[in-house]
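Task card 7
Instruction: Convert sequence to structure tokens.
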Amino acid sequence: MTSSSNDNKTFRNQGDERLIQIRNIIYLLLMILMIFAFPLQGQSIKIETINVAPFGFIGSDGKPTGMMFEISNKIAEEAGFEYTNKIVPYARTIVHLTTGKSDFVLRFSNSKLPAVAVPLVSIIAMQNILLFNTSNPFKDLESLSGKSVGVVRGGKFDVNFDNNTAINKVNVNNYSQMLQMLTNKRLDGIIGSNVGLYYNAKKLGITQDEFSPPLLLNSKDFVLHFSKKNSDVEVMNRLKASVEKLKKTGEFKKIVNKYMGNFKWEISTDE
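Output:
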């Protein structure tokens, strides 16, 4: 009688252990299914924005703002990610993409970026132009021979301009300084992106009709560069889909227009 009772108890204990094991296996399987079904839930994206107005800068309220700052945030939100976004110096963005300190940045491409980042998708085109006073319009680069043109230090906007040794290139610190030198007739012309030049002119109280029609040099895209160090196909696919959707609805141009006021920043390329 005692032996039978012990046997029953042993069977019950073994049964309980099996149930616990089965329950643990089911729990583990459910956790694995949840991970695969919702792999990015709650994942945070680390964004950096170039510290160049109007693309990224600290506003008068001490908070980060700017066209590309807002556009980056919009992309992350549409893709369903939590995110952080920091304003950092232009050159540092490459360093942080290299080390994986940031996941993505919106900026122009250069020769160093392909080694450290995936050029995931184009965001919006910016035109590089030459601006002149209304009293001194120039029609082409050749007509600028012997003339002084302001260039933001380190800026590379057009290969033909860079290679033209007949033009006197004057290095300046920023767009604002360059615009003031042009209006004071200390420069014959200035070079830069249409949005950068016109935004800073607006901030200085300079109207668009104080310039002659711009000389269009080229068009370059702001591109979403994703860190190769942090490469994640699913994350990148979701970001790319987000960009394509926002481009179709015109969200990016709406953000740019908000900063540009009455300035007509898009230059027609029609003949």
